[in-house]
Write a structure and sequence with these properties.
By secondary structure, the chain is an alpha+beta fold. The protein is 33% helix and 26% strand. The structure holds adenosine-5'-triphosphate. The site of adenosine-5'-triphosphate has 16 residues, from strand 10, strand 13, strand 16 and helix 11.
């Protein structure tokens, strides 16, 4: 718990070091949109690659897709989003700001250490709870809200070239439907046998009532989703398996298990057989990182009903026909980036009295794997040679500006696990020093062995 730092420090570091900038910043920004900078995009891509490796590459029965963001509107009728993808919103009568009733209660409960099943509350119960506890508007501090109303979170837009032929279409609020509508295509082209999975990484959009906490909740975000199709009887087994896989993945990108916990849903959707989240201890308290759901045969059954297409699977051995059940694992990539940033952030007190900020990313997700630093400018020719060589196989960076100590600090702040220093001995005997980010210890390594040294240490 002592690792948790103030979110503001992380936001400032992200801005200052090129992880994440405010969206459209030169125009004064656009609320709750964020742009990943040169270091941030590497971190995010490495997290996506690690996810894909675990859930597609290293899985014998999972396949990837990259479906369109814009889908036939009937998809959202079938999925239930048109009718009920909404959050309970209320407006502050005093300052006219809009809020999510469940979030107001959750924030209040977190502050007062109250554990409660907010997702199981009805609109009336939420309304009463807010009045009873005099929960205040986070903007103006008054407790004077309008009645709770449902607010649909889907962003709509229009398609068509003439005004009268315009059809409303939606920016997808989740990537999952891209996997469901391609169930038959993937099964046919891969000749996969149930059980098998379909994975996708892509953008999703939600007109959130109360976005915030940096990239925790935004209106545009990326999801990494995996739908696993199985027989009904195997649902429980695979649900447990995906809970474990999701947990292992969170640990593999550096999250401390002490900052992770499972949380069963208190209220299940009518079609769901089981549902839980993995929560992470963010600076603002325990909050959802990802969800794992046993969704029964609901998704494919609904698409069969709305599209008229037979979504049954024919078991080639038993000749049985059935609509597979779905175990869903869904994680917000940006939310995971935030958790990884929070976990990695550290302020260390050094012996000389200085404080160093260091990002302890696990090396395989660190933005740069190695930095090449000539001790003095007149060593830059040799240093550039080494840098060019390393660039062939590693995301590497080069820095010759300022004292070596300052340059080490800069690399610490972006979490570069290894700094290679070119000094006068390098010219003499073709060796370099390799400094470890976490221990700050240095090894003397032959240039010929450098690549192997890095490969062995980047896990
Ligand atoms: P929340 O309760 O936090 O709004 P949710 O339960 O609606 O999330 P899901 O629909 O299950 O979320 O989405 C799956 C995952 O996508 C979440 O676990 C989260 O990591 C991510 N996610 C959902 N909404 C957002 C958002 N607005 N911004 C960033 N990530 C999001």
């Amino acid at each position: 718990m002592e690792k948790l730092e103030n979110l503001d420090k992380i936001v400032n570091l992200c801005k200052g070091r090129g992880f994440i900038f405010q969206g459209s910043e030169i125009y004064g920004g656009m609320g709750n949109t964020w742009d990943y900078g040169p270091v941030g995009v590497e971190l995010k891509n490495n997290i996506k690659k690690a996810w894909w490796k675990k859930f597609v590459q290293q899985s014998e029965n999972s396949f990837g897709v990259d479906a369109a963001i814009l889908m036939n509107s009937r998809v959202w009728d079938a999925s239930g989003h048109t009718a009920s993808f909404s959050d309970p919103k209320m407006d502050c009568r005093n300052c006219k700001t809009r809020h999510r009733a469940d979030n107001l209660i959750e924030d209040y409960n977190k502050k007062h250490d109250i554990e409660m099943a907010v997702d199981a509350m009805s609109k009336e119960e939420m309304q009463n709870y807010i009045v009873e506890h005099q929960i205040k508007c986070p903007n103006c501090g008054k407790c004077d809200f309008t009645e709770i109303k449902n607010f649909n979170l889907m962003f709509s837009t229009k398609r068509g070239v003439t005004d009268d032929s315009q059809d409303v279409i939606y920016l997808r609020p989740e990537t999952a439907q891209g996997e469901f509508v391609n169930f038959l295509n993937v099964q046919r082209t891969t000749r996969a046998k149930v059980p098998f999975g379909i994975a996708q990484i892509g953008k999703a959009f939600r007109n959130e009532i109360t976005p915030g906490n940096f990239i925790f909740r935004t209106i545009e975000f990326e999801q990494m989703e995996h739908q696993f199709f199985c027989k009904e009887d195997d649902g429980e087994k695979f649900y447990k398996e995906f809970k474990q896989k999701a947990w292992d993945f969170a640990k593999s990108v550096g999250l401390n298990p002490e900052h992770l916990r499972f949380k069963d849903h208190d209220k299940l959707a009518h079609y769901a057989k089981a549902a839980c989240d993995i929560q992470y201890l963010f600076p603002m308290g325990w909050s959802e990182l990802n969800g794992i759901h046993n969704r029964s045969a609901w998704d494919l059954s609904r698409h069969q009903e709305y599209s008229g297409k037979n979504m049954q699977y024919l078991d080639p051995i038993t000749n049985e026909r059935y609509i597979p059940n779905v175990i869903e694992y869904s994680i917000g990539c940006d939310r995971l980036v935030l958790a990884v940033l929070c976990e990695a952030y550290d302020e260390e007190q050094l012996e000389d009295g200085e404080t160093r900020i260091v990002m302890h990313f696990v090396p395989h997700i660190a933005p740069y794997k190695v930095a090449v630093l000539p001790l003095q400018k007149n060593l830059s020719e040799k240093a550039k040679e080494v840098y060019k060589d390393l660039q062939k196989n590693f995301m590497a960076t080069y820095d010759e500006a300022g004292s070596i100590g300052k340059r080490y600090r800069r690399q610490d702040e972006i979490g570069t696990p290894f700094c290679v220093t070119i000094d006068f001995d390098t010219i003499e005997n073709n060796t370099v020093t390799v400094r470890d980010r976490d221990t700050m210890k240095q090894d003397r390594v032959k240039i010929d062995d450098l690549e192997k040294y890095l490969i062995d240490n980047i896990k």
